[in-house]
Design a protein that fits this description.
Helices cover 86% and strands 0% of the residues. It is mainly α. The chain has two domains: 48-134 and 288-297; 137-264, de novo design (two linked rop proteins). It is rod-shaped and about 110 Å long.
């Protein structure tokens, strides 16, 4: 038996190619002759995309609620909801990727790739954002500033007012000196208290430094006036001055906690991320999914031609 020649091999290759082409045409024709299957496949992919868009919107809503919540428990609950919705989007993305791989158009695959890249950025941003949101350091700082810290300043002022009333029978010169020192301490403490909310709300570290410099000046003024009172005969060591000094010491401890929490700035930072970075990448994700849904919807469905 002789080996096939070059011409025979060439004809065999051509024949195999023609056979493969015929098979592909038949399969394609058969597939195109099944509009119900094509319609079901289209509906399946559209349903996945719509579900992804809904879960993406739910994740965004929960994330914003986590940022704006006023308690740690509420923030954590909403953060968990946001993470769960984002995970559902990822499951849909993987499911859609498997469906498009063998039979999706190149445009559909490109749009899914565009979404996948934007969604990866969104997941990275969400991790940082939600980790910050649940800490609520600015809210805690505000609670301390308007609660215990303000109460400590009020108590100091009340103790100093009692001190003035208790020394009303001294000489006019002594009365004036006491009033000057008491007013100096009370006014500086109140100014210091009013500087805490702007510090808590501030986003810039540079501006925080400036506010803290003013806070330190007011703190020094309070201490100088209290020391001046303590140096006066008959005033130093009195119960009212001791109470005022203790109240200011308590305020000083609270002030240090407030400034530390304020420096972490988790609520301010998470809100800034939500309104800027997150919003921009969310628009890209939603636009890509919208375009992908339109591309799938635009796929023609074959209508079989009835023989005459």
């Amino acid at each position: 038996m002789t080996a096939p020649g070059r011409r025979d091999l060439l004809w065999m290759a051509v024949g195999a190619a023609l056979l493969l082409a015929v098979i592909l045409v038949v399969l394609h024709f058969q597939n195109r002759q099944n509009p119900a299957a094509e319609l079901a496949f289209k509906a399946q992919r559209v349903e996945i995309v719509e579900r992804m868009r809904l879960e993406l919107a739910s994740a965004s809503e929960a994330e914003k609620s986590a940022v704006l919540a006023i308690t740690d428990e509420e923030s954590q609950t909403y953060a968990d909801q946001a993470r769960a919705a984002t995970a559902a989007v990822e499951r849909g993305r993987q499911e859609l990727e498997k469906l498009l791989e063998p039979s999706g158009t190149q445009n559909e695959k490109d749009l899914l790739t565009q979404f996948s890249k934007a969604f990866a950025d969104l997941q990275r941003i969400d991790k940082d954002l939600l980790d910050l949101a649940v800490k609520n350091t600015n809210l805690k700082a505000n609670s301390l500033a308007f609660g215990p810290a303000a109460a400590a300043v009020d108590e100091m002022g009340a103790a100093l007012a009692r001190l003035v009333a208790a020394h009303g029978n001294t000489t006019p010169a002594d009365d004036l000196k006491i009033l000057q020192l008491v007013d100096g301490a009370r006014i500086a403490a109140l100014r210091l208290l009013t500087l805490l909310p702007p510090h808590i709300a501030e986003e810039s570290d540079r501006r925080m430094d400036e506010i803290e410099a003013t806070i330190n000046q007011e703190d020094q003024t309070v201490r100088q006036n209290l020391e001046g009172l303590n140096a006066l005969p008959g005033v130093g060591g009195s119960a009212d001055l001791t109470a005022a000094t203790a109240s200011y010491a308590r305020f000083t401890e609270l002030k240090a906690q407030i400034l530390k929490l304020s420096r972490e700035n988790t609520n301010v930072r998470s809100l800034a991320i939500s309104l800027n970075q997150k919003r921009k990448v969310m628009l890209v994700c939603q636009d890509a999914l919208g375009a992908l849904e339109q591309a799938i919807q635009a796929e023609p469905i074959a209508v079989p031609v009835s023989p005459r």
